[in-house]
Sequence to fold (487 residues):
Amino acid sequence: MTEILKAIERFLEASKDPVLCEPGEEWLAITSENFVLEERGACTHLQAWDHRRNLVRRVTAIERETRGKLVLKVARFGNQPGTLELIDRRRAVRDNVPLKSARLEFREQFRRFLRRQFPAYKFAELTTETDLEHSLSPAYPRALLRQGAAAWAAIGVAAEASHPDGVLTFGLIWLDYLRRREPSLAIQGLIVYLPVAHAKTTCLRLSFLDPAVAQYCAFVFDDEGLEERVDLKDYGNLDTHLEPYRRPTRCPGVPQCEGVEKIDRSDGELSFRVNGLEFARTSGSELLLGLETKRASPYGKMAAFAAELSRLRSMDAPDRRNPLYLRNPEAWLESQVRRHIREIDSSLLPTPVYGQVPAFAAAERGVLDLLAVDHRGRLAVVELKASEDVHLPLQALDYWIRVQWHVKRGEFQANGYFLGSELVRDPPRLLLVSPALDVHPSNECVLRYFFPCIPVERIGVGLEWRKQLKVMLRSPQAHVNSSFPAR
Fold:
């Protein structure tokens, strides 16, 4: 037994109310029925699930252990490093003095910054208190600055915050809340205070928000706490790349299996899935079979594997608490949308529909993306989320920005995508698809601040979307035009 596995088991045995926490996500309560630890060779793998999501990570190291908390280093999709925290909530509530102290310390740093940069304004409010009613997090100090009838909303994020990119979501929610709460004030916009190492994503997002709705000031600070105002135009260059699309090589040995989806990958290989969960793929002339670890296998083994997976991962599954049924609901939703794309929007062509183009750390965001085209040749970014997520609009914006970048440069067809369609260079449409009862109430608030050239539509599907994909609501953006901000 590895030292990592021993440390995790020791922590859980001593915990009264353990939860698993990944940065930017809700806590996931752990019991003996929804948590599994496995040794595979020299590696330790953990899996946890609930009715909304399934989380599988390879643990690479113990980063630190304190009273009531065990911080794990993990490898995510594409071997991207990350962290997970095992927390005993009974101890965390009672003994979380270091966290509270750090937040208070950063709040005072935030206060000093605002006094230096906005000396003519007075503090009408400065807080780190939780406000669940208005979806405001204690992780980001927020303020209201006032000068007569003029005012600014402000928010900051510490350098060591677990989810620094979440600051803008809560900043827009805070701004919108203050405007409704203080109708007598002319709240001009939002001031954002960012660690320089984590400023790029937020500053890029800010440049795609509508300046007619609010003004934005971004400041970055270094390790010494010294700050400077940044020009958002300096963040216009994107780190994005579009891989050429390779037509898949047909494999005559692949058996026809009922209920198995055969998806063309952009690298020329084939992916085989059951309700979105990949269990096999080709690698040249070989078949790689397996869920966690794929190994070369004869094609003849594929049918039996697929049949058992289909039995456990279907609407008629005998056990809906089985990990294979619960795993990756976004992938299941993606599978349904692929098959019924015209239910989502009748103007979209049923083929081709691409997944993760350009590739953009889907597992990091917890969101899956599809890219389709309508009969006019306009692209549509389809963002999928099977559970409530306050950050969905801005995560979707990240992907939309990259697709728009390649559209403007005519790179999709130049790289072999959407052959047979004449693509137009209009800004892509952005369709946010999720179960109608799992739309976060603050999503609409955040979307109101998007630049009007981004045509957003929220689409809610029925509760039984695994059985039948049926659109229950559509909420288009109220104001859309095709003009685009100068970049």
In short: The two ends are 55 Å apart (CA to CA). The chain has four domains: 3-95, 98-235, 261-323, 328-476. Confidence is low (pLDDT under 50) at residues 478-482.
